[in-house]
Amino acid sequence: MNWLTDQFAKLEMGKISAVKLKLAASSATIDSLYRAGNRRLFKQVLLGTLGLVSAFMMVACAALPDSGPVHKGEVNIDSRNPLSQLASGPVDGSSPEKLLADFQQACAAGTYDDYGIARQFLTSSQRRRWKPQEQVTVLNPKTELKIDFDSETNGATGTGQPSLRLNQAGISEKFRTEESIRYSLAKENGQWRIKSLPDGVVLTSSAFKNAFAKRNVYYWSSDHRFLVPDPRWVPRKNGAQHLLQSLFTGPSDDLAPAVSAPVTMKKIPSNLVVLQSKKATVELPDTIHLRSQQEVDQLYQQLRATLLDVSGIDEVALSQDGSALEVSSEQPAASPKPIMLGVKNGQVVEESSSRSGLFTSQINPDEVITWPTPSSPATDFHVAIRGGNELVRLQRGKAPVLLYRGKNLRAPQIDAWGWAFTGDSTQEGSLIAVNARGTAVDVKLPTDSKWKIPFFALSSPGVRGLVVWQVGYSFQAQLVTIVRGEDGTPLQIIPAQDKTEAMRDVISAAWINSGQVAVLQGGASPKVQLLGINSPDESFEAPVNAQYLVPNPPDGNVEVVSDRGSRLGHIEQSWRVVGSDIFYPAYSS
C-alpha cells in the first residue's frame, strides 16, 4: 500500500485540489447532518462512505500486490502501468533543465496521446515539424538522460548510454556507446520552450517497456512453405495498427535474403485494421493487387499469424474496396504441443502433455547417447549423437538408426525442412547438414570465418542461427542467416550482425524464443548472455554448477542443467528448480 500512496502523491496538484474540494463538501454534509440531529441518516451516510473507501482500498490492494506467494498464471502481454500514461504540460517559470526533464516524462507517455502533451514543450513552429515516431532510443536500465544547459548559447546537450535504437518499423539500428542529443531553447511568451531538437524520442528502459510491447510479424520463407517470425517492438496503444505498419514496411535486413518478396506499402493507411469485438478486419488499399486465390490465402495466413498474438483478437478477416475477400476454408492446424527429449539412466525418454516415458527401445549400455534433439511434433525426425562420433535418427519404440559418421560431433539442430545440422567441433569451418535419408551437405560459411565452431544454434523454423566461433581460448558469437535452395536444402550461412566482443569459457548456446538466443559462459564467474533480434542484449549470473542450456524452453525462461541433472529456470530474476534427473533435455520448437 505504500507504493500506491507514493504514486498518488505524484499526481498533479490540480487533481489533488479537486479531491480536497470533494472531501470538504462531503465533510460539510456529514457535519450538518449530525448537528441537525439526524443521527440515523448520519449513520447511513457514514457507513456508505466507509464502504466506498473500503471497496476502493480492497480493489487497489488486489490489483497491486507487493507481498505473498507467487502463483503461476497467464500473463497479459498488453497490460501496462496506468500511471505511466500520465503526463503534464510545461509549468510556468520552469528553468531550462526542468523543462527538458519534464519533456522527457511527456515523451514517455507520448504513445498514449500521440505526443500531444510533449509538443506543448516546443515552440509553435517546431511543434509542426517534430517527428517523434521517427526513432526510439532506449537507455540502459536504471539510467536517465543527463542534461547540461549552456546559458550563453541557450543550447542544451543530453547524454546517455543506449541499449537499443529502433526505427519507425521497430527494427534495430546501430548506435554509439554514448549518445548526445542536442537541443536549442528560446523563450516564447516569457516561457522557455524547445526551439530545435532531432526527430525521435529518448526513453528510459522502464518507460520503454511500459509504452512498447514485443511482437512477431511473419514473412513466408523463400519457398513459401513456412512462416518466419521477425520480432519487433511496437506501441501498446493501437498495437494492431502499428504491428501491420511494421509488417508492410518489410523484413529486417538480415531476414531479407531468406524470405520471399513480401507485400509492402509505401503509404500505409491510418485505418488499416478495424477492431470489433474480438475480430480484426484488415482493409487492404487498392494499391495492393492480389493476382490469385493462392496469394490471397498466403497474405491472410501472414496477417492471421501476426495479429493473433495481440491480446483480445481471436479472428482475422480481409477486406478490399468495402468487400470481404474470401479465403480458403481450410484453416491452419493448431500448433502442436511441444515435446521434450532427454537422457535418463542411459535411455532416451520423452515428456509431453500426452505421454511420458521411454522414447526409443532399450539402448545397449555400451552405446552412449547424448543430445537427443526433437523436431517439430508434427514431424517424425528426431536425432541424437551416439558415442560422440555418430548422428543417429531416433524413432519412438525403435532402435537408433545411423545417419552420418564423423568425429567430435557437436549437439545437433533440426530445422522445419528436415535437415539436422552438426559437424566436427574441433575442426575449422565444419558445418554439415544431414537429412532423414542420410544425405549430407557441407554448408558454405563466410569466407573470412575459418575458425572452429564449438556451438551452433538454430531458431525455428530454421532461417536464423547463432554461430559461436573459437580461436584458442577466445570465443565470439555471431547471428547468421541460413540461405536455402528451392527445395529447402541449406546452402550457406551469411552474417546477420557483427561478431560480439570476445568471450571466455563458452560452454553452451541455445535459442530461448524466436527473438533471443542465450550463450552460457562458465569459469569462476558464470553468466548467461542474451543476444536479441531487434532487442537489447542482456546478461545475468548463472548457477556455478550450470553445464549447458536447454533449447526452446516452453515458458520462455532461460533454463540450464546442473552437473547433477537438476533443471533450473531463471524466473523473476532468480534460479528455481523446475525438473530433475534428466540430462541433455531439449524441447521441440
Task: Describe, in plain words, how this protein is organized in 3D.
This protein has 589 residues and is an alpha+beta fold. Strands 25, 26, 27, 28 and 29 form a 5-stranded antiparallel beta sheet that branches. It is globular and about 85 Å long.
Distance between the termini: 42 Å
Unreliable runs, pLDDT <50, ≥5 residues? 1-79
Oligomeric composition of the shown chains: single chain
> Based on CA inertia axes, which overall geometry fits?
globular
Calculate the mean pLDDT score and round it: 85
Radius of gyration: 29 Å
Biggest beta sheet summary: 5 strands, antiparallel
Number of helices in the DSSP assignment: 10
Number of E-type strands: 38
Q: What class do helices, strands and sheet pairing give?
A: alpha+beta
- Helicity, in percent? 10-25%
Q: What fraction of residues sit in β-strands?
A: 25-35%
Q: What features would you highlight for this structure?
A:
single chain, 589 residues, alpha+beta, five-stranded antiparallel sheet, 10 helices, 20% helix, 35% strand, globular, disordered N terminus
Topology:
Layout: H1 2-9, H2 13-35, H3 39-63, H4 96-108, H5 110-113, H6 116-119, H7 124-129, E1 135-139, E2 146-150, E3 155-160, E4 162-167, E5 179-188, E6 191-196, E7 201-203, H8 205-211, E8 212-220, E9 227-235, H9 239-249, E10 273-276, E11 279-284, H10 293-307, E12 315-320, E13 323-324, E14 340-344, E15 347-351, E16 356-358, E17 369-373, E18 382-386, E19 390-394, E20 401-405, E21 413-414, E22 419-422, E23 432-435, E24 440-442, E25 452-458, E26 464-471, E27 474-484, E28 490-495, E29 503-504, E30 506-513, E31 516-521, E32 527-532, E33 538-541, E34 546-549, E35 559-562, E36 567-571, E37 574-579, E38 583-587
Parallel strand pairs: 1-7, 11-12
Antiparallel strand pairs: 1-4, 2-3, 3-5, 5-6, 8-9, 10-11, 12-13, 14-15, 14-38, 15-16, 17-18, 18-19, 19-20, 21-22, 22-23, 23-24, 25-26, 26-27, 27-28, 27-29, 30-31, 31-32, 32-33, 34-35, 35-36, 36-37
